[in-house]
Amino acid sequence: MSLQVRLRLLPSARCLFDEAVHVKVAGLRSEQVVTLRARTTDERGTVFHSAAVYRADGSGELDLRRDAALCGTYEGVEPMGLLWSMRAAVPFKYFHWTKAPSPLVVRFSVHDGVDVEEEERGGAVAEATNERVLIGEGVIREVVDLGKCNGVLFTPPGEGPFPGVLDVSPFASEKRASLLANKGFVVLALAVFYGKPTDVKYVELDRFQQALRFLQQHAKVGSDGLGVIGRCKGGDIALSLASFVPGVRAVVWINACSANIGVPLHYRGQEVLSSLTLDLSKIIPTPDGANIVEYGAGDPDSEENRTSLIPIEKATADLLLLASEDGLNFDCRNYMESMAARLRRAGKQNVETVCYPRAGHHLEPPYGPHCYSGVHGFLRIPVLWGGEPRAHAHAEVLAWKKVEDFFRNRLSCPLANTKAKL
After folding, report:
1. pTM for this structure?
2. Where are the alpha helices (DSSP H) in 297-346?
3. Cα–Cα nearest to 139, from 191, 187, 85
4. With bands split at pLDDT 50, 70 and 90, how would you rate the model's confidence at 198?
5. Is the separation of the CB atoms in 325 and 391 below 8 Å?
6. 105 backbone dihedrals φ, ψ, rounded to 5°
């Protein structure tokens, strides 16, 4: 490796997962053409990579906040493009980084000339390693026994009181919960499904109510109501909690359905919501082997699905509904607009809606690889999750800030300003 060329990640090579890094290169020849690459491996062993060609300025320097990529997995001025444009070396792979204790390690490298192929053709003239951390200094992670299942609790540093948030995911994931804890929230992460969803006959809302009670009784959680956040199946569980269970103050719904989907929902020993009808014959296969499943779900507002529609008119919580326009999993924008209209007809003003053009289904905390396709967690077939990578990446930055501000404004605690840092 050359001693003259220097690749720097500022302000530090170690950062929180949802923080941007400033990539700079120095020591190149005047107007030298180079390829910058990023490469990482997720927790399931899948390799993700990106590459972009740049031209140095007259002083032999590159600054990704200033300079435009000429070609590669992205183009133009995109300071974090090397991260969000990473894609799997094999098709239909979702980026799995769900366990909070381990940092994601990303290798950045600089190569002479144009080298945007999947495999590097030449050695690097400079490289640096970025450690992207989910748990900041002072945040405590602990597994808690909730009776029929375990949750993972993240507690920020300090005495509190802090706002409490229940984070509901279709399958076990700690990423969003740990990152919210870094921002001064006590967050309990809970999955809807453990094991195979096909083995589940119904979901009990009581399990999530028990999780809310756990948060309410936690010594560091303030008494001014709780928040719930969920995407996909977690989103309809979040709405159901606000509709049936007291004590919920604020709900964030992300790219989910307005009805109960998958399996029936039980509460206090009886079925309260049936499952939305599905018509698998309406799934559209694509030439690359994936499928578009958006049209396989029935109309939640139709008479035949009336018993599956979540009665959000009963909710007293404030609702933040975030929908991607190009999700390809659900017709989320239509669901969002229909729910907002129902609430207005009921005389309620407790909803805020945001739609992100050209964004896909997996609207996650920012700076992870964009997931355009993958294997569906319930149907077990390759599907398209949609989204134009650049627009999706920008939407994730905006949505993540929106989530933090919403919870901070709705779940105010006088001392809840402690944030974790590295």
Report:
1. 0.95
2. 332-345
3. 187
4. confident
5. no
6. -105, 120
Query: 22 and 11 in contact (C-beta within 8 Å)?
Result: yes
| Cβ count within 10 A of residue 53 | 18
- Which residue, 224, 289, 207, 263, is CA-closest to 378? 263
Residues 6+ apart with CB under 8 A from 318: 249, 250, 251, 350, 351, 352, 406, 410
- For residues 10 and 28, the answer to whether their CB atoms sit within 8 Å is no
Cβ contact 215:208 at 8 Å? no
Residue 56 sits in the same domain as residue 149: no
Query: Over the stretch 270-311, which tens digit does the pLDDT of each residue have?
Result: 999 999 999 989 999 999 899 999 999 999 999 999 999 999
Which CATH number characterizes residue 188's domain?
3.40.50.1820
Structure tokens that stand for 192 in this block:
């809807």
What are the pLDDT digits (tens) for 120-143? Answer: 777 899 999 999 999 999 999 999
Q: Does residue 109 contact residue 45 with C-beta atoms inside 8 Å?
A: no
Distance CA 82, CA 51 (A): 7
User: Helix or strand or coil: residue 281?
Assistant: helix
Alpha-carbon distance 6 to 186, whole Å?
40
Task: Give the residue carrying structure tokens 């799995």.
Answer: 96
Same domain, 156 and 288: yes
User: How many other C-beta atoms can be found within 10 angstroms of the C-beta atom of residue 412?
Assistant: 13
Structural domain boundaries enclosing 219: 140-410
Of 398, 401, 389, 396, the closest CA to residue 358 belongs to: 389
233 in any annotated domain? yes
Q: Give the DSSP H or E segment for 320.
A: strand 318-324
**DSSP-assigned letter for residue 263:** S
Please, are residues 272 and 260 in contact by the beta-carbon 8 Å criterion?
A: no
Rg of the chain on CA atoms, in Å = 22
Structure tokens at 14: 């170690």
Give the length of the chain.
422
- Measured CA to CA, the distance from residue 50 to residue 117 in angstroms comes to 9
